[in-house]
Specification:
Elements (H helix, E strand, L loop, with lengths): L4 H16 L4 H18 L11 H11 L4 H18 L24 H9 L4 H13 L3 H6 L5 E2 L4 E4 L8 E4 L5 H8 L19 H15 L7 H14 L4 H8 L4 H5 L17
Antiparallel strand pairs: 1-2, 2-3
Helix pairs in contact: 1-2, 2-4, 3-4, 5-6, 5-9, 6-10
């Protein structure tokens, strides 16, 4: 069933406004899905003519259906952009409390487990990519977006362009990975994907997740190690090695130090280089 013209026009404007404000492509896609769900629930009304209590009623409806905390949180953000940014509502009119986050500790593989997983990968390119994600603390989307020219082998730097929040940053490159990264980019243009797929395009995040899942089984790991687990391991192992928390915050690209401090709860105390004052 085709959407009404009004809904199509609204969606076009909504996407354009998000793009003008520099939102990431993935965020725009998520917000657009949220808006479609809301407009379907709202029919035959249209969002601009909806009563002021309607967005809250929709969110309550989602909670009653058992929607996840993250989905409700995304819907709140999407509706706030629609009504506050596009329709000019006062922000207080959409002062909806966000669902409380569960305070769960991240799964952090040991360095030995990361190497065990990497060695279980039969494809050299995949192995290099996994070690690069771990050694530089990259999000999976950041890793697959890297171009050959984004890695400086002389300065041991990885340039992350338009990371989360559209921000650029530099992170470290392990000197032990220089031969593998040089092999990845050998003979290819600076703007070519650093980690290409079989057709020469970009390796996808899903392909990396699938490759790692198979390697976990092959290696006999009891932990479920995902691409994001490698990022957790990067931060935790740096902290255990004595790296300052503020430095780790910059390397990870966290906007708030509170996001980085959660790694203090998962470090192994026996590995932290802290000397007792006694």
């Amino acid at each position: 069933m085709r959407e009404p013209v009004l809904s199509t026009e609204l969606m076009k404007r909504y996407r354009q406004e998000l793009q003008l404000r520099g939102y990431a492509k993935r965020t725009i896609k998520t917000y657009a899905c949220c808006l479609r769900q809301y407009t379907r629930w709202l029919r035959p009304l249209v969002p601009k003519e909806a009563p002021r209590d309607m967005p809250r009623s929709f969110l309550i409806h989602l909670v009653e259906l058992g929607a996840s905390r993250s989905l409700v949180d995304q819907q709140i953000s999407a509706l706030k952009f629609l009504y506050v940014e596009l329709y000019g509502w006062a922000s207080e009119e959409l002062d909806v409390p966000r669902p409380k986050r569960r305070k769960t500790l991240p799964i952090v593989p040991t360095r030995e487990e990361v190497l065990q997983l990497a060695n279980a990968l039969t494809n050299r390119k995949h192995r290099a990519a996994v070690l690069l994600a771990y050694g530089s603390g990259l999000r999976v989307g950041e890793l697959v977006a890297l171009d050959v020219g984004d890695v400086d082998l002389d300065e041991l730097l990885v340039r992350v362009r338009a990371g989360k929040g559209g921000k650029d940053r530099n992170t470290v490159l392990s000197d032990t990975l220089v031969p593998e990264v040089a092999w990845l980019g050998n003979g290819r243009a600076m703007f070519a994907p650093l980690v290409p797929n079989a057709q020469g395009g970009r390796w996808s995040a899903r392909s990396m997740q699938y490759a790692m899942a198979r390697a976990c089984k092959r290696a006999g790991l009891k932990k479920r190690v995902t691409p994001h687990s490698l990022r957790h391991a990067f931060a935790t192992h740096l902290l255990e090695g004595g790296t300052d928390l503020r430095v780790i915050q910059v390397l990870l690209g966290h906007a708030k130090i509170e996001t980085t401090t959660r790694y203090t709860h998962v470090v192994n105390p026996s590995r932290v280089r802290v000397v007792s004052p006694l």
